[in-house]
Specification:
ten-stranded antiparallel β-sheet; homodimer; 768 residues; Beta-galactosidase, Chain A, domain 5; alpha+beta
C-alpha cells in the first residue's frame, strides 16, 4: 500500500498530482450536505483521468435489470443514482492558453479537504508557453446551513508579468452515468435559460420524472472592479457567462460562483425552476464570505458533539474524522424520505440508496452522536416502506414484510437471486434497530406508534419462511445467504436463525408489553395488522424451537449446516497472489472454500453482547477470524469491536486501522469508484463500542474502556437520553463529564459514576 | 390442452388458421437439413403473429453476457444462434390487392408437414374485394441430398374469373433476432447483386466474421409460357425479381424458386458468393421435380432404418415420427464441427448449439439408428474441444477438463454461476457417452485414438474438484447443481457423485486396458497427457471412497445432503393454479421446495441399468417420482424408461405420450419459441430402451419387450455392430429379423435368439 495523502489531524492533503490516483482523490475530497454532493473534481477543464460527478439525494433512474435467465420474483428495475447537471465547472484561458492540468505545465500543486470547515481547496501555478507564472486557487463548499446552495471562490493571480484572463463559468446538463450500460442518457431537457445573469438548466429524469433545476451565477472582479459577463450557450444543455480582463501583476482576478439545486421532491413542478433561481439569487446577495461563515458554524456545531479525539496517533485521528465527516455529509436526518447510500454522493456504483448497512452499522452512530430524531428518522423511513415490504414478501409467496436488499422507495431493486431472495437476514437487522433504539432511548411512544408494526410484520415473515423438520423436531431456515456473501443458498445459517429467533421473540415481547402498558393502543394496532394470540404463541414456539447448527467437537456455532464439510484452512494458508480472492478466484471456488467475507457468526455477538459469555465469544472468534478475509468494508470494524470485547486489543487496533483508513489508504483498490460510506460508521463503532466498550442495559449506560498501546489517549462525546457525556480515556484513567442535560448515573468498568450538570471531569482510575 | 393439429401417421395437418397459434405451427412445420433451416413461415406477406426465421448451422454471434454483478470465471460472451437472410419470401398481388392472410378474406386454408417426404405444403383460396376466388398453393423443401439448396413451388390459380397476378420473389437481409436485447443488427452487408437472374446477398456476422451468401432465382410460367422477371432492389439489403401476368381461369401461374446458402465455414472467403450463385444455378438447371425426387429418396432412406411403427394408437405414432423427423433435420452427422442445438433450426431461444442433452439423450438414438460414424462424429466433436475444456477448468482454478454447459466452439457461453460453475455433472454425461459408445460398438480404435484423452482429463477434473472430509473419511463434492435445476449450490448431489465416481473408475479401467492391449499406444497417450500411476491410483482411491448421501429410514439414495430437511410433499399436493411452478413461484420457493424438475437420482438408473436391482429402483422411483413436476423436456422420457424397467407400464405409457407429444400438443406452452429438439430423442428412448428394453452387456444385444395396453403392436429397427435388426412386438409375441449384416445372437427376454442373414422373422412367444 502506497500512502497517497499526508497525515494531518483535520485535513486530507494531496501535494502530488498523479493522473492514476486522481479519481481516488476526487472520491476522497467529495463535498456534500445530505441534499446534494459533488466529487472533488477540478473546476477548470481536465482531460486526464476523472469522473465528474454531481449527485442529488432521492433522485434516481429505474434502469433495466439485466440477467441471464429471468427468475420469478425479480424486481422490475435496478435503481441508479444519477449523475446530474455539472454546475461547478469553468473554462479558463490565460493569454489564450486553455488551462488543463493534463496538458499544461504547472508547479506547486496542492489540494486539500478541510474536514473541520467542510471546504475543498486547491492551488497551483500555471507556467504559460511564454514562461509567465500565474497562481490559480479555488475554495469550494456545499452549504450545511442552506441545503440547496454551494459556492466557489476562484482566483487567478499573475506572479510576474501581466496576463489576459478569459473565463467561462457554465452549467452542462449533457451528463451520462459512467455505469450506464449503453451510454444511455437518463435526463430530458425541460428548459435552458438565463435570468438576471443567472444561468439555469431544468431537466427531468426519464421514467421517474423527477424535475431538477440547476442554477449558477457569478460575481467577478479585478482590482475591486466588477466585470460584466456575456451570455454563452448552445442549442443543447450548455449555458454560462464569459468574463475577460487584462490582469496586472499583484492584482487578482477573482470569481465567486454560487450554485443551487432544487427538485420536484421538495416543490411543485411549476415552482422548481423559480425556486432554483431564487436560491442562487439569494446566495449572490448574501455573498460568499457570509455563506462560508454560516457553513463553518454548522460544521463547528456538528464537531462539538460528534468529534472523536485520538492522541499520539495521527493516522488514527485522521481516519476517524474522515469517516465522521463523510457520514454527516451523506446523511443529516433532515428528510426521512432519504437514507444512506453505499457511495453517498461520491460515486455511482451499486445503485439504490438503502442497504441493511444503515441499520447494522450507521444507525448506532447516529443514535449516539446526533439527537434521537435523526436515528428515529431512519426508523420512520422503514415504517413508511412497510407496505412495499409486504408486497415484497408476497411476491416470494411469503407472509408479513420482507424489507428489500437494495431500495430507493421500499421496492426491491437488486436482481441476483442469491441476494434478493436469500439474503433475508437484512430483515433481522431492521428489527434489531428497533430494539436498539428503544433500548437506548427508552422511547416507548415510538414503539407504540411505529415500531410494533414493523416488528410484527417482520416476525410474521420469519414464521412463514421457516419450515418444521419433524426428523429433528426443530424449525429450520433453508436456502439463505448470510452476511458472509461468500456462501450462497446455504441452510440454517446460524446468524440468520439467531436473528429470526430474536425477531420472533422480541415481536411477541413488544406486543405483550404494549398490551399491558397501553391496552387501548394495542387494540388499535391489533386491529390494523391483525394480531392474534395464536399467532403470537406461534412466534414464541418457533423462536424457542429454532434449530441452531453446532460443531460439537469444537464447541462453536456452525456458520451453516454444511460448513464442516469444507476444507478448513486459514487466511495465512493463502498465497498473497490469491488475495483478494474475489478478484482472483472463480465464484464457485470462493463458495466452496471456508473463507469468510465478513463477520457472520461474530456479527450476532456484536448485536447481543450480553447473550454470550466471553469464553463462547473467544472460541468462536478464534475459529472464525483466521478464516475471514475481510473483503467487505463491513468486516474489520465488527471484528475490531469483538476483539476489544474479549480483550484482544492488538487485533482490535489492527482491525480499527484497516476500517478507519479503508478509503483514505485505498485498501480495497476501488476508492476511485467512490467511498464506502455505509462502512465509515464502523470505525466509530470500533472506538466507542470497541475500545470504549459502550453498552446500554436496563437503561444504564456503561463503558468498559481500554487504551490501545499506540495511543496516549482518546475522547468522544455521547448523546444519551437528553444528555451529552464526554468520555476521555488515558492510561489507567478515564474522565467522564456531563456536558449537557440532567444528572445521571453511568457505569465505567465496574464503578457506578454519578455525573452532575457542572461540567466537572470525574476521574476513575484503573479497572477496579 | 387444446389439440391444434390433426392426428395422422405421417403428417402434421393444420386445417384451422388461428393467429394466436400461428407461431406454434411455424415451429412445428420447420424444415431443415442439418446445414440450414427455415421456420414454417408463409412465403407471401403476413402481418399477423409470426417469427420469420432462417438459421444456419455453426453461424453465431457472441452477444454480451449481461449479469447483475460480474463473477470471476464468467464467459466473455453468450453465443446467439442467428436469424439470417430471409430467402423464401415473396410479395403477391392479385388484381392489385396484396395477399396477406392477416388482412384479406380467404377460405379452405390448410397447411401440412409431410414427414415421410420432408415437405411443407399450404393451400388456401383468396377471395378478392370483387369476389373473385383464386387458389394459392405452395410446396417447400430443404434438400436432404444437396445441403446447400432448397426450393419452393408456388402456384396461383383463378377458380372463376381471370385475374392479374403480380409477384416479387426476393431476398431480404435486414433481419434481426427477436432475442436481440436492443434490436441490434448482427450482420454487415458485403454485397447485394444480381447475376444471370440470380439474386444474391452476401453478409458477414459482426465480431465472428462468418460470411454467409444467400442466392435465389426463379422459373415462372403461365400456361407453359415462361415469364421474364424484372430486377427489383433498394439501397439496402433487398433484391429480387418481379413477374406479372394476366391469368385466365383454368390456367396456372406457377413459380419455382430455388435458393442456396453457402458460408465461409465451408469455403474460402473469396469463393463464398460464387459458390452460392453456382448452387442456385445448378438447382435451376436440375429443375424442381428432379430435386424433389432426390430429396424424397434421402428421406426414404432415413425412414428405412429409423422408422418406428406403432399400431393401434395414432397419437403415439404421429408423436414418435415427428420427433425422429426433427432430429434428423437437425443433425445428420455430416460435419463434426456441428452439434444438436436446443431449438435446432426452429427458433432462437437459449443460444449456443451444444448442451449435455446431446450425450445424455440424443447420442443413444444416433448410436442405434444411424451408423457408427454419426455417433462417433458427436464424440470427435468433444475431443476437438478438449483444449477449450482444459481452459474452462483452469478458469475455475481446477485441473483436467470441464466441458462447457453451453457452447459453440468449446468455449463456455452461459453465465449463471449456479449453472456455469456448478452444473458440472455435464462432464459425467460426456464420459458416459464414451463408455456407451465403446460398450455398444466395441470400437477399441476410437478409445485409443480419442476416447482416453477425453476420459482421463475429465477424471482429472473430478479429482481436483472433490475435497476430502476427514470427519467422514470420504470424498465430497460441494457446491453443485444436479440435473434437477430446482436445487442450486447443493452439496453431494447423489447423481453428480455417482457420475464422478464412474468417470474416475472408468478412466482408470480404460487406461489400464489400453496399457495391456496396446502398450505402445498407451505410452504415447501417457506422454501426451501426462498419465501417471500415482494419479490413476488416486482416481481409484477417490472413486472407492466417494461419499453417497443416503436416507436410512427410507432405504433410498438422498438427492443431496440437505434433501431431507425439506418439507416433503407430492405433486398432488399442489393446487393446479401453482403449476408449472416455474411460472408461478419465486425462485427461492422453488429451491426450498422438494419439487424436482427432472430425473436426478433416476437419471443414474437409466445410465447404469445393471448396477441397481429392481427393488432399489422401485423404492427410489416411488419416493422421487411423486415429487417430480417434469418441467423439463428431459424428464418424462427418462422416467418412462425407468417405469418400463420396473414394470410400471401404465406410468411408462403416460410419460411416453407426454414426452413424444410435448411440442405437437404444446404441453409446456412455449412451442412458439421453437421445438425442444434435444428432448425429441427421449421419446425414442422411451420406446426402444423403455418398452423395448434394449440393453447391451458384454457385447450382447438384449431386449426385454413389453407392449403398452393402448397399442396393438410396434416395431423398430436397430443398428448394432454392422447389422440392422428389426424388432416387432405384439401381444405375447416378439418377432426379430436380421435385415442386414452377419448372423448374430441376441437375447429377447431370457431367450438367446440366433439371427441369420435371411430376412426371416424369428418369433419368440411370451416371456420365458
Amino acid at each position: 500500500m502506497k500512502r497517497i495523502f499526508e497525515a494531518d489531524p483535520w485535513k486530507v492533503i494531496g501535494n502530488v498530482f498523479d493522473n492514476d490516483t486522481n479519481e481516488i482523490a476526487e472520491s476522497i475530497m467529495s463535498l456534500a450536505n445530505g441534499h446534494m454532493g459533488f466529487r472533488g473534481n477540478f473546476e477548470e477543464d481536465f482531460s486526464g483521468s476523472t469522473l465528474k460527478g454531481t449527485y442529488i439525494a432521492g433522485v434516481y433512474y429505474p434502469d433495466k435489470t439485466k440477467v441471464g435467465w429471468w427468475k420469478n420474483g425479480y424486481p422490475e428495475y435496478f435503481a441508479k443514482v444519477l449523475n446530474a447537471c455539472d454546475m461547478i465547472s469553468i473554462h479558463l484561458w490565460i493569454d489564450g492558453e486553455k488551462v488543463d492540468l493534463s496538458k499544461c505545465h504547472f508547479e506547486n500543486f496542492t489540494r486539500e479537504l478541510d474536514m473541520k470547515q467542510g471546504t475543498f481547496t486547491r492551488k497551483f501555478d500555471v507556467i504559460t508557453m511564454t514562461g509567465k507564472r500565474v497562481r490559480v486557487g479555488s475554495l469550494r463548499f456545499v452549504s450545511m446551513e442552506k441545503k440547496e446552495i454551494g459556492a466557489i471562490r476562484y482566483t487567478v493571480q499573475p506572479l510576474g508579468d501581466s496576463v489576459d484572463v478569459r473565463l467561462i463559468s457554465y452549467l452542462n446538463g449533457d451528463v451520462r452515468n459512467r455505469d450506464s450500460n449503453f451510454d444511455d442518457m437518463f435526463w430530458e431537457k425541460i428548459s435552458v435559460a438565463s435570468h438576471d445573469g443567472i444561468s439555469n438548466i431544468t431537466m427531468a429524469t426519464k421514467k421517474t420524472g423527477f424535475i431538477v433545476s440547476s442554477s449558477a451565477c457569478e460575481q467577478v472582479a479585478v482590482k475591486g472592479v466588477d466585470l460584466k459577463g456575456t451570455l454563452v450557450s448552445d442549442d443543447g444543455l450548455y449555458i454560462g457567462n464569459e468574463y475577460s480582463s487584462r490582469v496586472e501583476p499583484g492584482s487578482l482576478f477573482i470569481m465567486f460562483k454560487y450554485f443551487s439545486i432544487t427538485t420536484s421532491r421538495d416543490y411543485e413542478t411549476s415552482e422548481v425552476t423559480g425556486k432554483s433561481l431564487e436560491r442562487a439569487s439569494e446566495a449572490r446577495e448574501t455573498r460568499f464570505d457570509a455563506l462560508l461563515e454560516e457553513h463553518r458554524k454548522s460544521w463547528a456545531s456538528i464537531w462539538s458533539y460528534a468529534d472523536v479525539v485520538i492522541e499520539g496517533d495521527m493516522l488514527s485521528q485522521q481516519g476517524i474524522r474522515f469517516n465522521i465527516f463523510h457520514l454527516f455529509q451523506t446523511y443529516t436526518g433532515h428528510d426521512n424520505r432519504l437514507n444512506i447510500g453505499p457511495k453517498g454522493f461520491t460515486g455511482e456504483k451499486y445503485g439504490g440508496s438503502t442497504y441493511w448497512d444503515t441499520e447494522a452499522f450507521c444507525f448506532p452512530f447516529f443514535l449516539s452522536t446526533a439527537r434521537e430524531d435523526v436515528a428515529r428518522s431512519l426508523l420512520i423511513y422503514r415504517y413508511n416502506h412497510l407496505e412495499n415490504a409486504r408486497k415484497n414478501a408476497k411476491k416470494l409467496g411469503l407472509e408479513g414484510a420482507l424489507y428489500p436488499m437494495v431500495t430507493m422507495n421500499g421496492e426491491e431493486c437488486h436482481n441476483e437471486w442469491e441476494i434478493t431472495f436469500e439474503e433475508i437476514h437484512r430483515n433481522g437487522a431492521i428489527a434489531y434497530a428497533v430494539y436498539n433504539y428503544v433500548n437506548y432511548t427508552g422511547d416507548e411512544e415510538y414503539l407504540q406508534e411505529y415500531g410494533l408494526h414493523v416488528l410484527y410484520e417482520i416476525a410474521r415473515f420469519w414464521a412463514s419462511r421457516v419450515n418444521y423438520n419433524p426428523r429433528k423436531g426443530k424449525y429450520m431456515i433453508l436456502g439463505v445467504t448470510g452476511p458472509n456473501e461468500y456462501e450462497n443458498n446455504v441452510s440454517n445459517n446460524w446468524y440468520t436463525n439467531t436473528m429470526a429467533a430474536f425477531c420472533l421473540r422480541y415481536a411477541s415481547e413488544a406486543a405483550d408489553g404494549i398490551r399491558k402498558r397501553n391496552p387501548g393502543r394495542f387494540a388499535e394496532i391489533a386491529g390494523e395488522i391483525n394480531i392474534s394470540d395464536d399467532e403470537i404463541k406461534r412466534f414464541v414456539t418457533i423462536s424457542e424451537n429454532m434449530y441452531f447448527p453446532y460443531i460439537d467437537e469444537l464447541d462453536v456455532f456452525a456458520q451453516q449446516d454444511g460448513f464442516m464439510d469444507k476444507e478448513l484452512l486459514t487466511v495465512d494458508d493463502l498465497p498473497l497472489s490469491d488475495r483478494p480472492i474475489n478478484q482472483n478466484w472463480s465464484w464457485d471456488r470462493i463458495l466452496r472454500s471456508c473463507f469468510i467475507k465478513q463477520a457472520d457468526v461474530i456479527q450476532a455477538f456484536y448485536f447481543f453482547p450480553f447473550e454470550y459469555d466471553t469464553d463462547v465469544k473467544k472460541r468462536n472468534f478464534d475459529f472464525y477470524e483466521p478464516m475471514t478475509v475481510h473483503e467487505s468494508s463491513l468486516s474489520s470494524c465488527i471484528y475490531s469491536v469483538l476483539a476489544s470485547d474479549i480483550g484482544y486489543y492488538d487485533k482490535a487496533y489492527e482491525l480499527y486501522l484497516r476500517a478507519s483508513r479503508l478509503d483514505i489508504d485505498n485498501y480495497n483498490n476501488d476508492t476511485e469508484d467512490g467511498l464506502h460510506i455505509t462502512s465509515t460508521a464502523g470505525s466509530w463503532l470500533a472506538i466507542v463500542h470497541g475500545f470504549g466498550g459502550l453498552r446500554v442495559k436496563d437503561g444504564l449506560l456503561r463503558f468498559n474502556p481500554a487504551l490501545p498501546e499506540e495511543w496516549t489517549g482518546y475522547s468522544f462525546i455521547i448523546y444519551f437520553r437528553g444528555r451529552r457525556i464526554k468520555i476521555n480515556v488515558r492510561e489507567d484513567m478515564v474522565g467522564a463529564t456531563l456536558l449537557e442535560g440532567e444528572a445521571i448515573t453511568i457505569r465505567i468498568w465496574n464503578n457506578e459514576v454519578d455525573l452532575y450538570n457542572d461540567n466537572k471531569v470525574i476521574e476513575i482510575k484503573g479497572k477496579s
